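Researcher: Please translate sequence to C-alpha cells.
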Amino acid sequence: MGSIGYKIAQRARAFEMKIVYHNRKRRKLEEEEAVGAIYCERLDDLLQRSDFVMLAVSLTPQTQGLIGKRELRLMKPTAILVNIGRGLLVDQDALVEALQTGLIKAAALDVTYPEPLPRDHPLLELKNIILTPHIGSATHQARRQIMENLVESILASFSGLPIPNEVLLK
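Model: Translation complete:
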C-alpha cells in the first residue's frame, strides 16, 4: 500500500470496506488506523481473505508475474481481481483460464500486456471482465501532475541533480 494504494484505501474506507494490504514495508500504525487497514505479512493470506484484490504495484523483476495460476487458485471463487499497475503483473493466460472456469468471479484491467491487446485475444471474448485502455489516470489534474513531474525530472537531469521519483531497477 504505497501512495496510490493509500489513496484507494481512503476511498474504500468511505464505503465501509474492510481493507487488508500487503507491502514490502508495513505502513505506520497511525496510517493503518486512519483507513482501518490490516497488514498481511504474506500475500497468500491477503489473496485468501479478499473479495477484491487490487494491484497498484510497480513492475519490477520481483513483481513480474505476481499473480499467476497458484495465486489465482488461492483467491475466493467470488473474488474480483483489479489491476491498475502494469500488465505484466498478471499471467494473462492463467487469468483467462481462471475466468473461464469460474476459479474467480471477475476481473477489471486498466492495463494489459501488450497494450492494446490483439483483436483476437481471449480476454476480449469474456463476459466477466472489464477492460479499459490504461486510462485510469486520465484526469486533467493527474495529467497536469504527470507533466509537472516530467519537467521537474528533465530540469534536474540537465542540472546534474538527482532525478525526483527515479525508479532504479536492480
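Researcher: Any highlights?
Model: The longest helix spans residues 140-158.
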